[in-house]
């Protein structure tokens, strides 16, 4: 009898006992291709010897020092590396233990920036529907996933949500990409006007939407417009790259492909590749300067922030990615993955959309391709696909997202950056089989 409260009380998960490269093994000797990196975490695969060696070295010299007393070489080196590789204007990094913590810290940095500048009335956070920013209360409030938020709503800070940029679901028939991008971004302008620009703190968005919608990339110049709107109204732009960042889409940061830089950016998952829990907020020099020139103290902090073991792991993960030129593999294998998905599933009667960037690809299942009608949520198709995929020895990340009250079923693929062509072919073959087996379970 398990003494842990797992994600579900209905069953105990399989016991994972070992992992190497792109596979995880359970206690019954079955192995699974990790085609989703857990939740887009394991970017380097499992058991990488260079990361393990770095962890051993760090543990031998210093496992922990509280940041109220010390900084450490590992944390300083990681901070320097993150800033050196960051988008323009980013001057500093703040190290935390995961994605939700990073989002919380980013929201508080945004707020403190304005209080330091004498604009304490700026309090409204705007985000998008069909988004996920974490499960702590501030991050949950920012996110637009109603299924996750509903029962906690009385505890959430007030936030405002606009439509996501989601071409498959929201671009009108005959509407050009440019017109759609302008319309979707225009929602931000309208919301800022409604709230009064002088009261708005920040706009938060994932450049490529992950956990709620299955790798939804933006359209056209959507983010350039968003950047302009934020600048025009003095609103801070927070990009949440916890899932889509750190190389996952083929560039180190997803926003590079949009040609914009944020005021604050959150990264996590791929930063430490799962070897240690770690996340970071990258903050622009102007935010740092406002705090440094004001109270000189960011009113925040966690016991495990800047943890040297986590920093050492992340540093090693990022060094291997750069040394082995793995972002090139993300681009090449990402293109191959997309091509294979299109070949094998593109004409499937229940596959409505295949989308994504790099090794971050989503497949949306629909009951009817012509009308894009989703499956009845009670059928839990995404959960059936996950179970069938596990039966095929494949881990893929399933979701039943929220589309303006409707639910949709998606599968997210986010394999490690070390995948080969053969791995990709095997992943797609197993996924296609799992989808058909899951569909065969549905009442006709
Ligand atoms: N932001 C985004 C975009 C995410 O995808 C996630 C996790 N799925 C989070 C924040 C929260 O990260 P964590 O689970 O590490 O707290």
UniProtKB/TrEMBL annotation:
One cellular-component annotation, GO: cytosol
Keywords recorded for this protein, A-Z: Aminotransferase, Pyridoxal phosphate, Transferase
Matching InterPro entries: Aminotrans_3, Aminotrans_3_PPA_site, PyrdxlP-dep_Trfase, PyrdxlP-dep_Trfase_major, PyrdxlP-dep_Trfase_small
GO molecular function: pyridoxal phosphate binding; transaminase activity
A UniProt-annotated Pfam family: Aminotran_3
Listed Gene3D superfamilies: Aspartate Aminotransferase, domain 1, Type I PLP-dependent aspartate aminotransferase-like (Major domain)
Names of the cofactor(s): pyridoxal 5'-phosphate
SUPFAM superfamilies: PLP-dependent transferases (SSF53383)
Keyword Transferase part of the UniProt annotation: yes
Lineage: superkingdom: Bacteria
Cited NCBIfam families: PRK07483.1 (NF005685)
Family affiliation: Belongs to the class-III pyridoxal-phosphate-dependent aminotransferase family.
Protein name (database record): Adenosylmethionine-8-amino-7-oxononanoate aminotransferase
